[in-house]
From TrEMBL:
InterPro entries: WSC_carb-bd. This is WSC domain-containing protein. Residues 1-77 form the WSC domain. It comes from the Eukaryota. Pfam families: WSC. The lineage of its organism: Eukaryota, Fungi, Dikarya, Ascomycota, Saccharomycotina.
């Protein structure tokens, strides 16, 4: 979880989940989620925050978290 977004915007999807974003980011090191947005990146953020800050439920799969308020959830692919 980081306040930095090192990625490039890939997709807005009202059914976003960690798995869906990971699928969009095949070939990258990270899938990055925040709300209904998905970004892909090969760069690790310079700073991180507690994963407890990534507490926004994913719209497509509410048992997962898709980032948080002002922070991005990083998923290592």
């Amino acid at each position: 979880c980081s306040s930095q977004n090192t990625g490039t915007f890939v997709k807005y999807d009202s059914f976003m989940s960690n798995g869906l974003c990971t699928g969009y980011c095949t070939g990258y090191a990270y899938a990055i989620v925040q709300g209904m947005n998905c970004y892909c990146s090969d760069e690790t953020p310079a700073s991180t925050v507690s994963v407890s800050n990534c507490n926004t439920d994913c719209s497509g799969y509410p048992y997962e978290h898709c980032g948080g308020d002002g922070v991005y959830g990083y998923i290592l692919i």
